[in-house]
Amino acid sequence: MKYVRSMSRPAKTSPRAPSASDAPESAAGTRAAAQRLKMRRELATAAMELFATKGYEATTVDEIAATAGVARRTFFRHFRSKEEAIFPDHDDTLTRAEAVLDVAPAHEHPLDTVCRGIKEVMKMYAASPAVSVERYRLTREVPALREREIASVARYERLFTRYLLAHFDEQDHHDGNDDPLMAEVAASAVVTAHNHVLRRWLRAGGQGDVEGQLDHAFSIVRKTFGSGIGAGRTQGSAAPAAPAAVRTRGEVLVAVARTDAPLDEVMRTIEEALRTR
Please, which pLDDT band fits residue 18 given cuts at 50, 70 and 90? Predict the structure, then answer.
């Protein structure tokens, strides 16, 4: 498999230094976001309680709002429908996952970055195991809720696919270049690995080392796709290159590697050279 040609990225302008007047605005924005999330969670709790006791079909938006102690219009400021109401954290989690991608260190393998990004999703579920388990039960029983969950998962997959595709020359689509395909398949694999581990954890009642299970699943994805997804975020449009070149001088083995080459690829190249000597 070929290494990715990293795309050139426009230089970022230096952010304006914060002034004293920015602090109150920032604090007010943080408080508003916290209040918004608090209300969304209260509405979600009310919705889940009513779905569990009355059933999804028999529950109305007015009843959800009344149970949460707010007006109907307040409900619709936060959610577009009652099936959306039991997923209060997805928007904020998507924002956090995107932030992980935006500030990724230059040396990090893009698949590792994506795996760290989707861990934000797992943290959302793991923060409230009982709520997550009950929501899982409801989504299995109510087709409308299951479809809503599927739509939410698709948003994460699109985010990660776009990110991985950014490490390819999108103008270089031609027969024999499978890089864009690899990016999409790898993004789907990361999401699938996450969902597999999440389902097992939910079926176990939210018990067990879900983070360890997730790391194991990601290691399988990384091993499978890591050599096909480019390493590093070097500027410019460097041509694909092997991670290491090896030559011998008598009894000395000399290896030359790019600084952004994955360690496992470098080690594999050296091992192969040693075996063939």
Answer: low
Taking the CB of residue 206, how many other CB atoms lie within 10 A of it?
A: 18
Position 78 scores a pLDDT of 92
Q: How many residues does the chain have?
A: 277
The CA distances from residue 114 to 28, 96, 141, in Å, are 31, 12, 31
Q: Model confidence over 85-99: pLDDT tens digits? A: 888 888 889 999 999
Provide the angle, in degrees to the nearest 10, between the axes of the packed helices 110-126 and 179-203.
Answer: 20
- pLDDT of residue 133 exceeding 60, the answer is yes
Rounded to the nearest integer, the mean pLDDT of the chain is 78
Most confident of 15-24, 150-159, 168-177, 231-240: 150-159
Residues paired with 244 in a beta bridge = 257
Q: Is 243 left (phi over 0), alpha (psi -120 to 50) or beta?
A: alpha
Amino acid in the structure at residue 91: D
Tokens describing residue 1: 């498999």
Residue with tokens 């976001």: 33
Q: At what angle do helices 129-141 and 179-203 cross, to 10 degrees?
A: 100
Distance of alpha carbon 68 from alpha carbon 41, whole angstroms: 10
Spatial contact of 133 and 217, defined as CB atoms under 8 Å apart: no
DSSP class of residue 207? Answer: -
Query: 24: Cβ–Cβ under 8 A, 6 or more apart, which residues?
Result: none
Poorest-confidence range of 103-107, 156-160, 269-273?
269-273
Question: Which residues are within 8 A (CB) of 228 and not within 5 positions of it... i.e. 6 or more apart?
Answer: 1, 2, 178, 179, 182, 186
d(CA 53, CA 256): 66
